[in-house]
Amino acid sequence: MKKSELLLVDRSLSSGAGVSARPPTEAATDPLYEHGRAPSGSRRIRAKAAKVKTGCRNCKIRRIKCDEGQPGCQRCWKYGIYCSGYSWPTKSHQAESRVLAPMRNGSQISLRAICPRYVEPAQLTLLPFPGSNKDEMECRYFGYYLEDIATKIGGPGFSDLWVKVIPQVGDTHPYIAQAIVALGALSRSRQVQDKAQQIQHRVYALAKHVESLSGMRKVLYQDGYDKRIAMHACLLIFCFESLQGHQAAASMHAAGGVSLLESWNHERNFKGAMELGDTVGDSSSLSYAIACLDFQALAFVDARSADLHKHTAQRLKKWIKSMPTIYGPTGHFKSLDDCRTYGHMIMRRTFHFIRTVRIYLARNNRSFVMPNADGETANLHPGNNTWTSGPVRASEVPEEMLQEYNEHMDDIRRWQVAAEPVIAQARRIKDSDQFTSATVALIRCTMTILTLAGTLIDEGEYDKYIVEFREITSLVTSVWAAVTRTRNPFTFQTGMLPALLLVGMHCRDREIRDQAISLMSSGEGYREGIWDSIAIGKISVALRDLEEKWVDADGHIPGEMRALLVSCSIMLEEKTAQLVITQKAAPGDTNYQVKPVSLAW
Fold this sequence. Notes:
By secondary structure, the chain is mostly helical. It is built from 20 helices and 7 strands. Keywords: DNA-binding, Metal-binding, Nucleus, Transcription, Transcription regulation, Zinc.
């Protein structure tokens, strides 16, 4: 062997390259190789694999495979630690590139996306109580109003008024913020079961209510005060008095809110209908809310004059007359909001007319008036409400009122035709907000028909309207559970309770009447503004019990033995009521007997 070859072999042996640790024959017979394991002297090499990006944070830190168990992985459990959970990848919102207009030949404009590739998600934060140096209790009740009351108090189809506008007004007007806190605390007192907590919330609510009223008086005594802000305050006071059970005071503030809106529109020289939200710009929801206040006063205790009712009804007439023509040749509404708005206008105008008729008829009837010095007791007697009256004959009504009566019926029928497609579409999905809103619109329409007809008929003639009574009960049943259980027990708008009272007072079909009374009795704590479910249920039961003593073999109550509610004094805060009911002593008598009835619940 040459010297150069010896040098190459020597270098190979020293580096170990190309030389086996043991001969091939020896490696083949080694028992370690037979079992697939390398001898102890050799180093095992881990197979290459992609890095795992899923799993809990602990397993990633420990660099082990996570089993991704729920709610925690077993690896962490066996290791003796709590699983740190899993991080889910966030989805990025990418905008596609598009050309706004075709480019000409030779254009030097470069194509680029008009929106950023990634959009950061919006971060919503709960604003603190407006103003400075506010204590923890004020912030807590203000937050309770925002989270629970504001989203539900408007009823089905509510606007942004309670959720956005009123809290924003409170940012710059401390007395509005104090009224919000008072409303939140009072509503909270009706939610808790513990008596001590109820008293605590209620005392705090009354204290804040007094502070708010004091601030409002200082502002109202100034010249040139903002009537728009005053209307927001009026809404909050109405809700507070209604929740407190002071119905007379609530009715007074409801009528006052309407007067403020009329004055505000007069100052702006505004000629539109205040009920049409889209005609009033950013104050549309406020105008509709004040219109709801108007109906609250109309449907309960209303001390406004007959001239005012007549003027308001005539002013609304021109807007209602344009209803079938502004929606194209078919005469159908385009949206449920338009349908509801015009339905509310027709109902208000009709009730203004009913009030003028009631005031006219009450001049020749005996009134059973109860004193009302405290402003907290609601006294209903002929002439100041829609529900109490004596026997009425059409011959007592002037001819011009009979003609106007027919005009109101025609307006209601035109609304029914224009609303039918929209109402049918909205009521396809049960228990939805659209279903509830459309159903309440139908309830109001049927209630308006019955109340209007009741101004010119005797009590015995209500038997002709059994179909309408059954329709009201059926419609209310379809939405009663969804409204009274899933929403706030207090809602600002009125719809179901006055209609149920109408059935309980004037329907003599036992099955329909009992169903309506059962609904009212099951709504403990549910109120629609001034209207309380339990109170009107008790009134209906009192009338039914007096009449069913004279039921004949066919289950019919003779017309002359119908009981008439002439006067009613309700004290919701004390849960008592004093009724004055007239009824004949026996069939064939010509005179009515006065029967006082005391109620408590």
